[in-house]
Design goal:
This protein has 390 residues and is an alpha/beta fold. Helix content is 29%, strand content 28%. The chain has 3 domains: 5-72, Archaeosine Trna-guanine Transglycosylase, Chain: A, domain 4 (Roll), CATH 2.30.130; 75-180, RNA methyltransferase domain (HRMD) like (Transcription Regulator spoIIAA, 2-Layer Sandwich); 202-389, 3-Layer(aba) Sandwich (Rossmann fold). Bound molecules: S-adenosyl-L-homocysteine.
């Protein structure tokens, strides 16, 4: 048990009582004297009631993040949440895929921590000083649960700098020997953990890859912002007549080509073009009846929202213009600051400007292994729509 106490201001305990994991500096009446940043403290209400435990970093506007609620000792909660996270995935995804997100930060009651599993490689991402301090406990538990051949840290983010942490990347145990091969629903993908985006693969799109398999028979597919070709492999496996991947990253496209080959799919039906999607969509000759738009987050911060929406509107308008009647558009935004309602308004505007009749056939959020804590809507980011364009 910790001896330090963080005391909330009068009337400022509501969020914590509602099991919201973040404590902003404005809610704090007294920070724990003598506690080093990154350490654990009891969280008390103004009248002295213990509400749980949090780790503290005075240099951040989110001054503390809850590790446990009520009387549970924080390290017990940490271990219990890691076990619970593993159990959830074991039941829902492990039977059909050897790659999944094992820990999704606040969504698993583990603020500041992401853990992804790629076959026998475990990748961890730590974004806060408090979680950095708890890392030895986390690693010990992960070793026991996952028994990984390689334990790799990929902790680099602007958030770390705000926390006073330098980036940390590299193998903690074992060695990575190039891209890792994973199997998802019987399909194989190559994941470049060291050089890739995020921890290497867009695990959050697993359900959408299945949807693409189902929608692709007999279609000509444009996989825009393809990265390493997850959707290309699925489109071909599903029976697409043709699938063209477009991305600015040559390295991602090279890996996409290798993944198509690895699955024994017909390479002659697959294109890989290093180009700007905005330019490609402006080509009048575009001839696809299924377009996938999965761009990077256009709004990285709140002040980016207006230009980001302009970008989303442009690509969606162009895609709608280019699709023949009956065409399908699978479109995403992974900007946290552009919420679902706003993204829908952008799609509405795009449809108006393209002068097409557009209907929503399906909605999407992150895959099962990216749970969203109902108390913490702040960690929502991915939203997608399957649209029918008439
Ligand atoms: N759909 C992918 C993930 C996309 S991530 C998947 O399922 O795996 C976003 C990708 O967009 C990155 O690979 C990045 O290189 C690419 N990108 C960013 N801006 C681009 C642009 N203007 N034109 C083409 N590709 C772009």
């Amino acid at each position: 048990m910790t001896e330090f106490a963080l005391v909330l201001g009068k009337g400022k305990d509501k969020a914590v009582r509602n099991r919201h994991p973040w404590i902003f500096s404005g809610a704090v009446a007294r920070t724990p004297a003598g506690l080093e940043d990154g350490g654990l403290a009891e969280v008390r209400s103004e009248d002295g009631e213990i509400l749980g435990h949090a780790y503290v970093n005075r240099r951040c506007s989110i001054l503390a993040r809850m590790v446990s609620f009520g009387a549970e000792p924080p390290l017990d909660a940490l271990r219990r949440n890691l076990d619970g996270a593993w159990a959830l995935r074991s039941g829902l995804v492990a039977g059909t895929s050897d790659a999944f997100r094992v820990v999704h930060g606040e969504g698993d009651g583990l603020p500041g921590l992401v853990v992804d599993k790629y076959a026998d490689v475990c990748v961890i991402q730590v974004t806060t000083l408090g979680m950095e301090r708890l890392k030895p406990v986390v690693l010990e538990r992960l070793r026991g649960l996952l028994k990984p051949r390689v334990l790799y840290e990929k902790s680099s983010s602007p958030a770390r700098r705000e926390e006073g942490l330098a980036d940390a990347e590299g193998a903690l145990e074992g060695t990575l020997d190039g891209p890792v091969e994973i199997v998802e629903n019987g399909r194989r993908f190559l994941v470049d953990i060291e050089r890739g985006q995020k921890t290497g693969f867009f695990l959050d799109q697993r359900e959408m890859r299945e949807l693409v398999v189902r929608l692709s028979p007999g279609r000509r597919v444009l996989n825009a912002f393809s990265y390493t070709g997850g959707f290309s492999v699925c489109a071909l496996a599903g029976g697409a007549l043709r699938v063209d991947a477009v991305d600015t990253s040559e390295a991602a496209l090279a890996l996409a080509r290798r993944s198509v080959r690895l699955n024994g799919l017909e390479e002659s039906k697959a294109g890989f073009e290093a180009a700007d999607v905005f330019g490609v969509l402006r080509r009048k000759t575009l001839d696809y009846d299924f377009i996938i738009l999965d761009p990077p987050a256009f709004a990285k911060k709140k002040t980016d929202v207006v230009p980001a929406c302009r970008g989303y509107k442009d690509i969606n308008r162009l895609a709608m213009l280019r699709l023949p009647p009956g065409g399908l558009l699978l479109t995403f935004s992974c900007s946290h600051f552009v919420d679902e309602a706003l993204f829908r308004r952008v799609l509405f505007q795009a449809a108006r400007e393209a002068d097409r009749t557009v209907r929503i056939l399906q909605k999407h959020r992150m895959a099962f292994d990216h749970p969203l804590n109902v108390y913490h809507p702040e960690s929502e980011y991915l939203k997608g729509f399957l649209l029918h364009v008439a």
